Amino acid sequence: MQVEVRLSDASNGENGGSGGNGGSGSSGAPGGSGGQIVLRVSEYDTHLLLLVSHDVEAASGGKAGANGRGGKGGGGGLGGDGHSWSVTRTERDWLGHERIRHEHHSKPGGYNGRDGHDGSDATTLLYDGPQGQRGTFTIAVVERDGIHHYADRYDLKLVGFRHRNENGDGIYEPEETIYVTDVEVQNTGKMPTPAHHDIVIAIVETDWIAPAEATLVVPRSLAPGERHLFRGLELPFKLRVFNPQRAGAALKKAETIRLQASLPRVRSVFEGFAVTEEAMQMGRIAVRFPLEITPLTSLFSLAPGEAARLQWNVMNVSERAVGFETDEPRAVSVNIVMAGGDLQPNQIHLFDERGTHVPLDRGFARSVARIDAKHGNPFELTVAVSEDAPPHASARLVLAVQLGHFDAPNKLRPIQFQEFVVRVGEATEARQADVLVVANNRSDKTEIEAWREVIASFGLSSAVFDVSHVGNLEILRDVANGERKFRMVVLLDNSMDTGQGPRPPTSLLDPTTTLALTRAGVHVLQIHSGTGSILDRTLVPIDPVTPTERRAIDGTDREAVAAACANEPIGGNGVLVALQGKSDIVALRSKWLSEFIEARWPERRFVVWTTGNGDTDTRDVERLHRLMIRRTADAARGSLTALNADEHLVHDARFVREARTRSLFADALPFEIATLLLSLTPLPFGGGRAQIPGGVEDALVASVLTRLAVEMANVRHFGWGTSREKVVSAMPLLAYVEQYAFSTAPPHDDADLKRFGKPSTTLDPQSHRGRRLVELCAWLEILAGGQVRFWEWIPPFLWLRRGRKIRSRVREAIATLVGRVAPTLDDQNAVHQAIAARVKEIKESWLDLERRREASSNGAEFTQQRLAARFADYDVDFDAAHLAHDARRFSAAEAAQRQTERTRVTLDAEGAVQSASTRRDALFVPTSCSELLARAAPPMRIAVEEPPASAEASVGEIEVVFESDERAPRREALPQPR
Hints:
Immunoglobulin-like
């Protein structure tokens, strides 16, 4: 038997059809032509043409079309599918046995057809349509003698004009009449101006210009191109009244006299009459008065009992003399009155040039007889502060210059105010205090009192130094040299008044002095208002160094370099190192050398830079390179802190008393002082802290913890395999806490023990002292746990892991601290239980913050985040954030740039100090206030030069509007000359 299935052969696919050719585009059609316009008008109606505008421009031709692209060829047909089949055969042999045989067969598929050819793109050359023909515009004017045709209407342009002021002094003064003369116009149109209607020229009214009703009339039928000059005719206008509202610079306002041509019959103007730059230039004037007063010059700060010269000048900027003894007499006077401040009238005194006492409750007044053109009249009084004047109080003096009205020369009115603030400085003679507050003449009394209150709340003493009083910061150099004993400086670095304009106190401070303060262990908290942090320029002590000044150490001998750096003080002379080789090799070796020194002393910071190439060694093509290594402020101690705040906040007592500012003050304290205050401060636990979720609950604990966190981060930067002894020696701050925190005998001088007393010998975990101990140890436990990374638990060599050693060292310090402070075993157990409970609370808050993705899962990072969150809204700059490990090396070019900048800052500081000294020598009066009062004649008001008899003897009161951001406007009457 045979079963067979047969299938036909697969057929090939058909070829695809060819694509069609692209169609040809068409060229653009011609643009439309402009219209053919004829405007017919009577000669009596030509004024209406000013209202007509026309456009007969031709339209642009159409854009050319685009040629079509050829069609895509069709795809070839698919070949038929291949097939396979089997045949089964059944056979019997001669013995009758049945045998089955299977046969397999297949047929291949057909071929795919070829794709059709693509059609070709059209290639017709196409053009844009041509532009249409421009149309025509014709004006047909019907006149008596026939019809006249014109290509366009008339138009009027300003050719020129001149102007002068009434009295010819060259000053365009408020209330004065100004005259516009020699106006010249031209008909720039294509037809005459209207024959039956007037075109008038007038002055445009502005904020300053009040035109009179007078106008100029253009002659009728002015021919095309014809000009007309208004000879002998003038357009007058007045400058409006000006009343000064505040002290400051003299009035000088730019204004432009603008002329306008119009056809009143149709109430329309010639738009392009005076719009050119030349026309604007002709009319530019400056509105000002002929007299101006210079700013008041005196010392900005006077100690109680001191006196200084008060100087100013009344300048005549006009080209004619001013005063009541001139060809055109006008009354002139100067007046001074006290307008605000904290001082009482009997605490600040004025004396005239004769020594006569001028009480400020009545004021000073003086008439001026004559000031010649382009000359000035100088004045000099003496201002003195009484011996009982309170420090940091102030008096605001307002100077006014008065000038007779232009139309009423004997009737005075103020034309300019100048203001000067005399502040009572505090020339501290204190040789010792915990905190020195550096204030200036703009430091408010309430601001100083707030700082004293904050400092006292920690149990610290304070002294205030007014830099504006002496004009230098030599006191900080004395502090750095140990001549004065201060442990911290709060530098109020807002802009203060100087003879060179507003400048911050740090402009008087050279970077070397700041670094010397850190070397002496004195911390600096800078409060500035955008004047710039002092940290960067201080922490990189790259000063110009002459290589021949000292013998260089061989840089290949790392131990010799380390030995030289061992005793290097902060801001010292540095260590000079010589390296030989090509520049890239030397750069690599200097990197290794820097890392070696950092590993030796991780708690210190060294800056390394290339000082330049030395001489070429004749035995080798390589050059000798010299490196300078200098030590800068240690990162963990937080010696320098800067806060940037708005000017109004710096002087706001509420800002000073705010919890975040108190916390920042605590962070800026020297580490030893903050550690001492943990047990001795009168501040209750939690006082002065910035409240944040899951944060440290005490400001002093946070201050100590911040420094310990930085110290641990520095140690963790060590290389693998650091010994335990190395870890212990690299954490001196932790050792200090372990040995002295909450101690019954802190290592401070007798003055501390006398002032604070010794801490209690017993410890209650619920007391303020005990709660601080628990808080500190609990956070140290969290911080220590975060030092160990997960891979440090993976064997082998667990004993070589840095994080485990740091954690072990911290826990050892906690145990030692608790064992030393708690006298009995029961007390120690109670403290450890309280620490464990507090750790549990912290971890619960930590977990909640972590769930909200507001905290890291690492304990060290979480601690640092909580510490930083206290100042989230503050612009704070800590010195620990500067000079990361890879940012302490500088190339020769970078060093040269920094040397130049550092030299500039130093020279600027020296120049500012010298300028302040010269200014003080020139203005300071060595006679005391009490002596001046004793010498003075009985108080009286004097007018040396009497105005002419025709002048009004009584001119009424003049109000001075005194405006301040802090106080409501106050109005005081100025005295008048007799």
